Amino acid sequence: MTLSDLxxxxxxxxxxxxxxxxxxxxxxxxxxxIRPLFRALDNLLCRSFLKEYAxxxxxxxxxx
Length: 64
What we know:
- The protein has helices at residues 3-10, 35-46; strands at residues 14-22, 56-63.
- It is α+β, with helices and mostly antiparallel strands and 64 residues long.
- The chain has a two-stranded antiparallel ribbon with strand order 1-2.
């Protein structure tokens, strides 16, 4: 599901305020020693235009 799909589902009564992606990489598959490195990269990617491809997407809607 894309952000535009969510806006269409929300309809005219709701406004998309912000969105945040979580878990771009499968962190459980990455060795424990290098996880902090990947976590920083994961946070960066989840705040970029690639956030729609993260495992989870949190959306803040505001009622109009």
